[in-house]
Amino acid sequence: NSGTSMACPHVSAVTALLKSVHPDWSPAMIKSAIVTTASVTDRFGMPIHAEAVPRKLADPFDFGGGHIDPERAVDPGLVYDVDAREYNKFFNCTLGYLDGCESYYLNLNLPSIAVPDLKDKVVLQRTVTNVGPAEATYHLVVEGPAGIDVFVEPSVINFTRSSSKSAKFMVRFTARQRVQGGYTFGSLTWSDGGTHSVRIPIAVRTVIQDFVADTS
Taking every annotated instance into account, which residue ranges of this chain make up the domain Subtilisin-like protease fibronectin type-III (predicted)? Predict the structure, then answer.
């Protein structure tokens, strides 16, 4: 009834399409291409609504990256890749086998950013890999979550034929006021001003104390 049963075969088909076009891409690169090229508007160009009672504007917890766009996903420009060993480390963290996992959760190179417990400020890192033209310049566009200051360094990424195909960037989130709140949402987009617009969703929740439940 929710439609998720049909979402699975649709996404699986797009994954098969991307793998046939890019047989050397990792599963993480394929996932990134699908997420970062998705649309957050419907076929009429209007914001996506969640099928709730009452109806509400959808957020990343409803649609993830958005509506998939297979044509754009074939040529995403940049991807967020993850080595399979990093997933293994992440799994061991969830089981409590490793120490220092809080930082690792934030820095796993996923095509999304979630900060569930922002008390003051937090710094994390992402790496993008250029799978588009060898000569490219990407400029940053940030839509910050409400009540959160977002700083990204660098704000421009240049790729040349002689440079590395990967580039790291740092993201700092700072709470404007200390409140026990619900999640607020935003996005971080790298755009080359033409064909490629590489967008990842952001979800941040400010907290005062860990033991205070989120009732929003």
Answer: 107-204
